[in-house]
Write a structure and sequence with these properties.
The protein has about 250 residues and is α/β, with parallel strands linked by helices. The protein is built from six helices and eleven strands. It starts with a helix and ends in an 8-residue tail after the last helix.
Length: about 250
């Protein structure tokens, strides 16, 4: 009887230890928005329903205060920062805080319209590996050269078949917004592209900055994309790869 209770106690301890370890392994994510509207519930469900992460949301206050989400005191306590924001302005102090992410090795996942942020800050384009250039820096104007279109069927083609993020992912089609005319830096590693004739290419890429890994993913305008299982897989894998828990050596 005594031996059995001891064994049960040990089993309980072991279960608690395993649960504790699993808790520690969750990636701590800060999701930053602001400067562009989005379908909040559908967007956040992608993060809420990801069992591998815990996440905190932050929103830039307004245009006057620039990229104020970077002013939070706990910025450097996160494993990964996800950008689904589109601010136009960023103060010198906020730039320094943003750049500190890469000294610390904090991962960065840049989504969709965050390719349009800070039209007047070239360093941002260099870091994330691309830019959707607004003709006048004031947004919105669609031309033959640079533009966007909602509600397109986008055939997605996996380019990097051996990369952690896209390994095992089959080509798929997603109903989403396309951009064209965006610039892509020569030092990026493309992950996925598309055969859509009007869309810019590639649709996702990686690069490194300082001690950090960075991914850009163009997909993800609204709930039709957020509900797409392939989109969810991609976002989850992006977070895992730029974070500390992918197991892939840096
Ligand atoms: Zn959009």
């Amino acid at each position: 009887m005594k031996a059995i209770s001891l064994l049960s106690a040990l089993a309980l301890l072991l279960t608690a230890a395993i649960a504790g370890a699993a808790e520690v392994a969750k990636t701590k994510v800060l999701v930053i928005t602001g400067g562009h509207g989005f379908e909040k519930e559908a967007f956040y469900s992608v993060y809420r329903e990801n069992p591998d992460i815990t996440f905190t949301t932050a929103e830039h206050a307004n245009a006057r205060t620039g990229a104020s989400a970077y002013d939070r005191d706990d910025l450097l306590s996160f494993d990964v920062v996800v950008l689904y924001d589109m601010p136009k302005e960023i103060t010198e102090a906020q730039k320094a805080k943003f750049l500190a992410l890469f000294d610390k090795g904090i991962g960065l996942v840049v989504l969709h319209h965050a390719l349009v942020s800070y039209q007047h800050w070239p360093e941002y384009e260099r870091i994330i590996g691309g830019r959707y250039p607004e003709e006048d820096g004031k947004g919105g104007k669609v031309t033959e050269q640079v533009g966007y279109k909602h509600g397109e069927d986008v055939p997605v083609v996996v380019v990097a078949k051996d990369h952690f993020i896209t390994a095992g992912l089959k080509d798929f089609t997603i109903h989403d917004e396309i951009y064209w005319g965006f610039r892509v830096s020569p030092d990026v590693t493309p992950l996925i592209t598309t055969t859509h004739p009007k869309s810019g290419k590639p649709l996702a890429w990686t690069r490194t900055q300082g001690k950090s890994r960075i991914v850009y993913l163009q997909l993800g305008h609204d709930h039709t994309a957020f509900e797409n299982p392939h989109y969810r897989t991609l976002v989850g894998k992006c977070i895992q790869w730029v974070g500390p828990n992918s197991g892939v050596p840096r």
